[in-house]
């Protein structure tokens, strides 16, 4: 299967006065798995529809494999699409469903059937070839929808919430399955989801969208551990977001005094280095927090334990800062036993490694 690069240049879409997609640029190298992630209404489907040719932009260009396809219809773009509703034809058998796109492309019957069986092997369902869609489970139907897309070997596959209708366990299985197929075929995939865990599991890079714009684009670990904005930090899982002000700067390392007066310990900047006196938000992920008995005079953040939650694999401690002006604090660690010895109401000092504290400077408009 060939795979193509995708270039988006200054692409924008408005509905009347409403900006669904502000002018946006994006380069997707051939073979990459890119996920468009963002809250409802952030413009993910709009961008995907413009790539697919299901909508026309007000300005800008879409290039696939270097060719300008901005105003070409979907069937002239060499793309495959998989959506949440599988839209299999109920009166056709599975193998007929999969062969259908090839028939539309005038591939002769024997060849189409052979390739349909290869696609069925790819999704590991060769034994259901002669069944009808209603005789398959939801997860199986979604695999068939994927096979029907793989069968004509598109150079880019677009997926819009393809696993949205499946339960959690099946969704996780299918995530692994799609990853495996991506590895085997090395085709370019643009995947839309609003599920941050799914995006983190599957993607080479995540394009996090907010209000019709790209908020941050990067590897999952970049967005998770080095968010550029509070929006990114907050969207990608739980975090401690502690307001404060830069009070010292030593090379790349910042000293931050948190609102209420506690010191943050050394922190690193997620973007350009902020000057002394700049307001920042220090982000620390719950699993990077180390709790211990308070040390008199340490000047570090102290919290009073308000809740202990054992969520199976993780134990979470919720704390209220003893200094004013800070939000609820959360620390997490792997559950080792059901009673971890902590008592509600006890005071704990919160510490972390300098490289685990990220100082985010609020960009204008955020
Ligand atoms: P979701 O996760 O809910 O699917 P999304 O990020 O995919 O959201 P889009 O479907 O791209 O969001 O929609 C972006 C914005 O554009 C939304 O506010 C939506 O209401 C608006 N929009 C989309 N299509 C149209 C249309 N045909 N007419 C008017 N507004 C539209």
Would you give an account of this structure?
The chain is α+β, with helices and mostly antiparallel strands and 366 residues long. It folds into 2 domains: 4-225, Rossmann fold (3-Layer(aba) Sandwich), CATH 3.40.50.300; 237-360, OB fold (Dihydrolipoamide Acetyltransferase, E2P) (Beta Barrel), CATH 2.40.50.100. It is 23% helix and 35% strand. The chain is built from 8 helices and 20 strands. The strands form 4 sheets. Strands 6-7-8-3-9-10 form a 6-stranded mixed sheet, sandwiched between helices. Strands 11-12-13-20-14 form a 5-stranded mixed β-barrel. Strands 15-19-16-17-18 form a 5-stranded antiparallel sheet, with no helix packed on it. Helix 2 packs parallel to helix 4 and helix 3 crosses helix 4. The longest helix is centred in the middle third of the chain and has 18 residues, at 168-185. It is elongated and about 80 Å long. The two termini are 42 Å apart. 38% of the residues are buried. The mean pLDDT is 91. Bound molecules: adenosine-5'-triphosphate. Residues 15, 18, 20, 38, 40-46, 194 line the site of adenosine-5'-triphosphate (ATP).
């Amino acid at each position: 299967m060939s795979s193509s690069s995708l270039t988006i240049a200054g692409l924008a879409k408005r509905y009347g006065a409403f900006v669904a997609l502000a002018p946006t640029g994006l380069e997707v190298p051939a073979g990459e798995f890119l996920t468009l992630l963002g809250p409802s209404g952030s413009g993910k489907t709009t961008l995907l529809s413009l790539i697919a040719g299901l909508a026309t932009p007000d300005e800008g260009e879409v290039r696939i494999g270097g060719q300008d396809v901005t105003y070409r219809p979907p069937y002239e773009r060499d793309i495959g699409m998989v959506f949440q509703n599988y839209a299999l034809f109920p009166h056709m058998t599975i193998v007929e469903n999969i062969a259908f796109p090839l028939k539309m492309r005038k591939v002769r019957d024997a060849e189409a059937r052979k390739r349909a069986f290869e696609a069925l092997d790819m999704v590991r369902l060769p034994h259901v070839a002669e069944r009808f869609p209603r005789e398959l489970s939801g997860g199986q139907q979604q695999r068939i929808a994927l096979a029907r897309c793989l069968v004509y070997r598109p150079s880019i596959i677009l997926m819009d919430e393809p696993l949205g209708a499946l339960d959690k366990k099946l969704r996780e299985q299918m995530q692994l399955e799609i990853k495996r197929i991506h590895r085997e075929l090395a085709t370019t995939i643009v995947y839309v989801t609003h599920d941050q865990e799914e995006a983190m599991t599957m993607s080479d890079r995540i394009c996090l969208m907010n209000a019709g714009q790209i908020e941050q684009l990067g590897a999952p670990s970049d967005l998770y551990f080095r968010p550029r904005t509070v929006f990114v930090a907050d969207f990608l899982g739980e975090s401690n977001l502690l307001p404060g002000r830069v009070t010292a700067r030593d090379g790349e390392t910042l000293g931050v005094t948190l609102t209420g007066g506690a010191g943050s310990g050394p922190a690193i900047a997620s973007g350009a280095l902020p000057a002394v006196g700049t307001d920042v938000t220090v982000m620390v992920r719950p699993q990077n927090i180390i709790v211990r008995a308070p040390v008199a005079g340490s000047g570090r953040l102290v919290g009073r334990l308000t809740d202990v939650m054992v969520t199976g694999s993780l134990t979470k401690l919720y704390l209220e800062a003893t200094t004013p002006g800070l939000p609820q604090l959360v620390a997490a660690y792997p559950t080792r036993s059901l009673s971890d010895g902590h008592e509600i109401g006890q005071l704990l000092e919160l510490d972390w490694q300098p490289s685990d504290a990220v100082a985010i400077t609020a960009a204008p408009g955020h």
